[in-house]
Amino acid sequence: MAALGWLTHRRRSATARSVLAGEASAEAARKHSQEVPAPEEPTFPVLGDDKAAAFFDLDNTVMQGAALFHFGRGLYKRKFFETRDLARFAWQQAWFRLAGVEDPEHMQEARDSALSIVKGHRVAELKSIGEEIYDEYMAERIWPGTRALAQAHLDAGQKVWLVTAAPVEIAQVIARRLGLTGALGTVAESVDGVYTGKLVGEPLHGPAKAEAVRALAAAEGLDLSRCAAYSDSHNDIPMLSLVGHPYAINPDSKLRKHARELDWRLRDYRTGRKAAKVGIPAAAGVGAVAGGTAAALALHRRRRFS
User: Fold this and answer.
1) Burial class, 83, CB count within 10 angstroms (exposed 0-12 / middle 13-18 / buried 19+)
2) Tens digit of pLDDT for each residue in 235-276?
3) Which of 57, 232, 236, 252 is an active site residue?
4) Catalytic one among 50, 59, 155, 263?
5) pLDDT in tens, 138-175
6) Beta-strand pair 265-267/245-249
7) Whether 59 is catalytic
8) Model-level pTM?
9) What angle do CA 145, 151, 154 make, to 5 degrees?
10) Where are the beta strands (DSSP E) in the chain?
């Protein structure tokens, strides 16, 4: 019995010592983990990286809706064109919002309409009007979240460019008012400072955007693998694929799927589940456009028949 008691005591003592050792080891590990901070993700954008820049799509990425539509509203207010043209612009904008994609046919029709409207007008005149239209229709439609992303690049000492199918004169006004470096946009032909109603080359859309970014990067001595690009549209996948840091902003369904497959970063600044699904800034947005157009049409009718 004495021998058995000794064995029992030893077994119990060993168990106690094991518990003590385990607790001591755990405590030491915990203290060590507190002393050695966990590795953090690299800060982006990188401060002072002069080989990096950021490229932002405009429509529905930086600004709610299409810049060309807002510009058209401003020109209508200044009697550049008639009510039927405004209705066409409104339909194109409503399609853009509801579909959440840039339909090539609608985009081409919108550009043709704009070119016919500005034909014969001076470039300087449109630039001056563009400043006024920005304050009237565009300034309040800038997405704060995207604006903050652009500012982060500026604060890091990097250049930030808009890249858009909108006329370059409009894009330059928006870029300057936002404090960005500049803008790449569609170039309308002009002779002696007067628009001819034709384009130089083709609209800056899809693959053309990627080529513009590639050319600018070469001219600026940028390393595209260190650059970032931001867009809402699958049409801009060629541009997004050029850079080392692609972002899907308020993405349409095709871009969202592509971004998830490639583990690209996503940001969505739209509100409400439906807005996020169909690509409109808010349910009231379409109503506002429709209501504004209806009001304009009604006002025009009253003027005609009064």
Assistant:
1) middle
2) 999 999 999 999 999 999 999 999 999 999 999 998 743 333
3) 57
4) 59
5) 999 999 999 999 999 999 999 999 999 888 999 999 99
6) parallel
7) yes
8) 0.70
9) 155
10) 53-56, 159-167, 182-186, 188-191, 194-199, 228-231, 245-249, 265-267
